[in-house]
Amino acid sequence: MTTEFTQLGLQAQLVQTVSNLGYITPTPIQSEIIPLMLEGHDVIGQAQTGTGKTAAFVLPILQTLEQGQSGIQALILAPTRELAMQVAKA
After folding, report:
1. What are the TM regions of this chain, as residue ranges (predicted)?
2. Are 25 and 3 in contact (CB under 8 A)?
3. Which residues constitute the domain of residue 59?
4. Which of 1, 20, 52, 56 lies at a 20 to 30 A Cα distance from 90?
5. What is the pTM (predicted TM-score) of this model?
């Protein structure tokens, strides 16, 4: 398992932001999912509540967004309104 966010392939700015938010080490789901998504793979991840699943898919999406490009660059689907609200707040 990866012990630091710097080892996941994230840009330095994202790693710094994650660190500023108080997160030091990635969770197992983050260690597994982030590198795969950065390589362009489609993934399905399953983990308990509170294990960092949202960050596991949002950080790679943030890294691949192209500044200044209009139009949809990412689509996030959630199976329930409650979960959609949680993801939107994250």
Report:
1. none
2. yes
3. 5-88
4. 1
5. 0.85
Distance CA 80, CA 59 (A): 22
Q: How confident is the model at residue 77 (pLDDT cuts 50, 70, 90)?
A: confident
In angstroms, rounded to a whole number, what is the distance separating the alpha carbons of residues 64 and 73? 9
In a 3-state reduction of DSSP, which class is residue 88?
Answer: helix
Q: Using a CB cutoff of 8 Å and minimum separation of 24, what contacts does 51-59 make?
A: 51/27, 52/26, 52/27, 53/29, 54/86, 54/87, 54/90, 55/18, 55/23, 55/30, 55/90, 56/27, 56/29, 56/30, 56/32, 57/33, 58/90, 59/10, 59/14, 59/18, 59/30, 59/34
DSSP summary character for residue 84: H
Number of domains in the chain: 1
